[in-house]
């Protein structure tokens, strides 16, 4: 507390400028981020404004390197602080921020990761009805994403999490859940077909996700036309780096 | 790559490279920098152990150096004499003493103080900070728990909250992050699974989780054969250790292609000076040298001494550690 009185605003502002210069040079050095938090905590201006400015700053740094996980971690801390000071949740704004990042670059796994964290929180706080709406929107969003780039693993990791998510499973009417899964299923089959016609090869990630979808659908009593065994046998040839995993899954299935 | 001699680990050259680091103490190349010195010495000795050349280092000198890094006031080890103690350097110090079967060169009260130093860095949520500056990271949970295990001083009061914390770092994709909510990273997967393995709690993970972890880990292998640390990142030799040790701990080592990875590691050798780099044609360093060799050892190539994926030391050393829970 005494610090605050003895040192003037100028000092804190120049300290922020100094650490910013450091961060631009060494964005992966943990203690600079940590020191910056300390500066903000002790800043003469204890209003929410400096934290809001900080959020703008971290957005800029994440523009330079969108995969810097120190930056993403820092962002979560800043957002939490703003939420505490204003008493308002920023979940939807932050979700929109991940959308913006993913739309810029669909392979931004850090943004997809952040999306799972935020969505889990939103699911936890929402009423059932608004969750159902969000889930519908999300099905549309991931369908769009996989049509945009079916080669990149980020979107597929996200999809396999999303379709098995407990809230997704339990919020929707069973028939509605089944319908959305089957729709997703036929879209994945379609992408795979397109790839086959276009390049003569099936899409490995489509096959991998069809296997997951097959399990999820079976769990709710729906048989698919895609044979899990056939997908696995194909992957053994098409994705030989991970051949032993597929052999293992084949054995598990028997 | 065609000019490279594929398919051989240049053992003799790597031994000479590590030896040369010890002799060039005043050059830039020496063990990276002072603030990582004790870690660097551990990496070097560990590589020599796998290469059956432990004697290249002078045992007495090394023990003297390690004891010189012990900080009497706090009980931890520093990276270099007269620096501050840190959990990361404390693990390296204890590992080095263990590798020379010299834990008892510390007095009983020094060991007690060291145990207290480690425990004093545990936070309420079970995590550990590296030192009093408060960086929290699953890496430090591993360094703390592994250190206490080598000293055979684990207790449920320390272990149980640490395990809870680790399990909270598990992510949607089958990986682990540096704290709850942080993105998965292969090095963090090792520190989390390694911690669970040290305290014999891998069974806290469900079969479904283990399958997801295995899937995420095997997707780290890229067409060049090397492994990356996160999706859409470049391959790097050090992940040969972080990813493979993790796969080994969950008994899915063969979920990646051994021959391809072996080729990638061998392509990263400096054929003239010895040593291994992060990627082909980059500068070599001791960190990537040890983890490249450790990857080869885990895959059973090149007649190396087998390395224990839990402790990152050879089995002949770790076999003597009393396993938790005690009694
Ligand atoms: Zn590396």
Automatic annotation (TrEMBL), chain A:
SUPFAM superfamilies: Protein prenylyltransferase (SSF48439). Keywords: Prenyltransferase, Repeat, Transferase. Coiled coil: none annotated. It comes from the Eukaryota. GO terms for molecular function: Rab geranylgeranyltransferase activity. PROSITE patterns: PFTA. Belongs to the protein prenyltransferase subunit alpha family. This is Geranylgeranyl transferase type-2 subunit alpha.
From TrEMBL, chain B:
The keyword Zinc applies. Keywords: Metal-binding, Prenyltransferase, Repeat, Transferase, Zinc. Gene3D superfamilies: 1.50.10.20. It comes from the Eukaryota. Residues 9-313 form the Prenyltransferase alpha-alpha toroid domain. It catalyses: geranylgeranyl diphosphate + L-cysteinyl-[protein] = S-geranylgeranyl-L-cysteinyl-[protein] + diphosphate. GO terms for biological process: protein localization to membrane. GO terms for cellular component: Rab-protein geranylgeranyltransferase complex. Pfam families: Prenyltrans. Its EC number is 2.5.1.60. Its cofactor is Zn(2+). Binds 1 zinc ion per subunit. GO terms for molecular function: metal ion binding; Rab geranylgeranyltransferase activity. Belongs to the protein prenyltransferase subunit beta family. Heterodimer of an alpha and a beta subunit. Catalyzes the transfer of a geranylgeranyl moiety from geranylgeranyl diphosphate to both cysteines of proteins with the C-terminal sequence -XXCC, -XCXC and -CCXX. This is Geranylgeranyl transferase type-2 subunit beta. It comes from Zygotorulaspora mrakii.
